[in-house]
Amino acid sequence: MKILILLSFISGALFGCGGSGTDSTTKPSLLFFDGIYANNDAFMLVDTELMKGMYEMNGMIGSNGENILSFDGFTQSDNSMVFKGSKRWSNQSFYQDEKQSMTALFSNDHVQTITNDFTHHLLRQPASVELSKLVGTHMTSGGQITEIREEGQFTSYGNALGCTYEGKLKMIKGLYYFSTVKVTACINPLMDGFYNGYFFTLKEGNNINLFAIFHHRNHAIWGAMPITP
Questions:
Q1: What is the rounded distance in angstroms from the CA atom of residue 10 to the CA atom of residue 15?
Q2: How far, in whole angstroms, is CA 184 from its chain's centroid?
Q3: How far apart are CA 73 and CA 107, in angstroms?
Q4: DSSP 8-state secondary structure symbol assigned to residue 162
Q5: 185 with 163: CB under 8 angstroms?
Q6: Model pTM above 0.85
Q7: Which among 123, 141, 179, 185 could bridge 197 via Cys, Cβ 3.0 to 4.6 Å?
């Protein structure tokens, strides 16, 4: 089971499942927290300046492969952040809990995330690979095809939801990619529309996986795509 946490922010086959501060070590800039974190079970992407979308998502999003969990906002204290007001998506439902919270305790190379449901220790990872390494035609074991071109334009289709995804990847802070995603032809037409899409890569041995989450009001789509050079 894997969980992805996207902070400010924002883990499945996506493509197929439904500040300024001081230099002090005790009062770091919010930018201190920005990065990609992971262990064998969980991933987290942190961007503390991210406030884009059809609604502000300046909290956290996470997924265990079957669920997406997001928070509406955060507060900072020394080397920690506290997120409050959650939204949870699954393949079948959407649920909101204004009282749920998560604490994230940061050091230079890792973060510990704590809720009533889980605790994770995540190590800081390299930034997402450059666009040139993502260019090509890629396929999941389930038959979904994603085509990424040199200028960042992408098309993805053949997933269990029946959806086609189109957009253009743009690198943010040298860490991850963002794209407005046009979603069409879904089996459930209520899922069609324009989504905010967040993309980042993680290496597993010699393999690279591209992870993504799309959100639009009460709908979310997420998953992973193996990148084959």
A1: 17
A2: 21
A3: 21
A4: -
A5: yes
A6: no
A7: 179
